[in-house]
Design a protein that fits this description.
The chain is α+β, with helices and mostly antiparallel strands. It is built from two helices and nine strands, in the order E-E-H-E-E-E-E-E-E-E-H. The chain has a five-stranded antiparallel sheet, with no helix packed on it. Strands 6-7-8-9 form a four-stranded antiparallel sheet. A hairpin with a 5-residue loop joins strand 7 (101-110) and strand 8 (116-121). It is globular and about 45 Å long. The protein starts with 18 loop residues before the first strand and ends with a helix.
């Protein structure tokens, strides 16, 4: 695809909540740790909405990256402009993909029906994130997250 930055197959997977540095065109966001979020978390990203219709099973290539201290962010940052800051996820983290976005999921809780859950996930910024999801079938990963949710203290 013309104009698309090359990203080698060996590039480490980005998880929502990872810490990264950014090297894209917005230089005021360089040289600081940023949090990886959904590309359309803080507004509509037309390219990402279209992506969801045609790339089932593929990993996302664009993200919103935000400075947790200032609240400033870059929308639609491409994967090639992001460098992962190494982070060790807890042992019970389950790699879990929702619509092409990956999470280091901690557990799931009920969210209205048998095929919906609120997935609680780890971040590199010492906060627990959460997102709602609907899925076509109950997978081994969902069962594991459900079990981890039942074992968590209330």
């Amino acid at each position: 695809m013309p104009g698309r930055p090359f990203m080698p197959e060996s590039a480490p997977r980005l998880y929502i909540g990872n810490a990264v540095t950014y090297t894209g065109p917005f230089t005021e966001m360089h040289d600081r740790p940023l949090a990886v979020l959904h590309c359309n978390s803080m507004g509509s990203c037309e390219a990402c909405r279209e992506w969801a219709l045609s790339n089932e099973g593929a990993d996302r290539e664009h993200f919103l990256v935000a400075d947790p201290t200032s609240g400033r962010y870059v929308r639609h940052a491409d994967r090639a402009s992001l460098s992962l800051i190494p982070h060790e996820w807890p042992e019970d983290a389950v790699p879990f993909s929702i619509n092409g976005y990956w999470y280091a999921a901690a557990y799931a809780t009920a969210a209205g029906s048998e095929r919906t859950r609120t997935v609680h996930f780890y971040t590199a910024h010492d906060v627990m994130g959460r997102t709602w999801c609907h899925f076509p079938e109950i997978t081994p990963e969902i069962r594991r997250l459900d079990e981890q949710g039942r074992r968590r203290p209330v």
